[in-house]
Amino acid sequence: MALVDPTKAIRLEVPHEPGQWVEVRPLMGADMESLDVEAGRIKISFALLAEIVLAWSYDEPPSIDTIRRLDTDTILWLDRAALKASGVRDDDEGKGSPASSPSGTPPPSQDGASIPEPSLTS
After folding, report:
1. Residues of the chain under the 50 pLDDT cut
2. What is the pLDDT of residue 93?
3. 90 touches 42 (CB < 8 A)
4. CA distance 71 to 120
5. Which helix (H) or strand (E) holds 75?
6. What is residue 14's predicted lDDT score, i.e. its pLDDT?
7. b vs e for 69-83, b when ≥16 Cβ sit within 10 Å of the residue's Cβ?
8. Are 56 and 21 in contact (CB under 8 A)?
9. What is the layout of strands, in order, in the sheet containing 21-24?
10. 28, 6 in Cβ contact below 8 A?
11. Burial of 118 (0-12, 13-18, 19+ CB in 10 A)
């Protein structure tokens, strides 16, 4: 049985903002009701992002209000990166994409840049 440890933070480096990072907790079964599937794409609600974002390098602490104030590039990246860090893939990612290849090459983000592999922090 695979149990998620919600105390393990995953640090994600923001690829389009050198030096910036976001720490998230992994998604777990209880979070499934807050995920939205639209046209085969999985999205995380702002409320769930506010729950799973534990810390970040921005000046103001993470909250639903500050998450809503992120620019569109960052919120789209965060949505994709948090899902990937938790092992969740969209339907289209499992069909011949780099995420399904044994090489472990990270899939490209929406802007074509690779999403960096997450690192675990204690």
Report:
1. 95-110, 112, 114, 118-122
2. 52
3. yes
4. 25
5. helix 72-85
6. 97
7. ebeeebbebbbbbbb
8. yes
9. 53-56, 21-24, 9-13, 119-121
10. yes
11. buried
